[in-house]
Amino acid sequence: MIYYLLRIMKPLQVYVDDAELARLEEWARGRRMSKSQAIRAAIRALTQRADDDPLLSLSGMVHDRLPADVSAHFDRYLQETFVAEPPASYAKRGRRSRASARR
Q1: Burial of 102 per CB tally in 10 Å (0-12, 13-18, 19+)
Q2: How far apart are alpha carbons 38 and 101 in whole angstroms?
Q3: Between 49 and 30, residue with greater pLDDT
Q4: First to last CA, the chain
Q5: What are the residues whose beta carbons fall under 8 Å from the beta carbon of 33, sequence distance 6 or more?
């Protein structure tokens, strides 16, 4: 057994194929993590309960009036619903001429 941050860590053996192992190694390397750290992060993400995260607990609250394809076309729907004030129209001014300095 290994003591990891004052917790007792138990070994777990997992069988993966070559492609899965390569993806895991690439993912972990890109984040400067070991494969073990990456697997522990995945386990935490997969087993996290919605009531542990206030943002996840909001999931499903507004499903009544949303279109079925909102996730596929989110940007389009956001653009259609975004209301902004039109830019102010200022009268175009002519360029002022500088008075020449007296000597």
Answers
A1: exposed
A2: 72
A3: 30
A4: 91
A5: 41
Which of the 8 DSSP states describes residue 50? Answer: G
| DSSP helix/strand/coil, 7 | strand
> Would you put residue 60 in left (φ > 0), alpha (ψ -120 to 50) or beta?
left
Q: Is residue 64 within 8 Å of 56, Cβ to Cβ?
A: no
The confidence band for 4, taking pLDDT boundaries of 50, 70 and 90, is: low
Name the H helices within 1-103. 18-30, 35-47, 54-57, 74-81
* CA–CA distance, 3 with 93 (Å, rounded to integer): 73
Buried b (16+ CB within 10 A) or exposed e, 43-71: eeeeeeeeeeeeeeeeeeeeeeeeeeeee
Residue whose token pair is 């902004």: 84
Q: Domain segments of the chain: what residues? A: 15-53
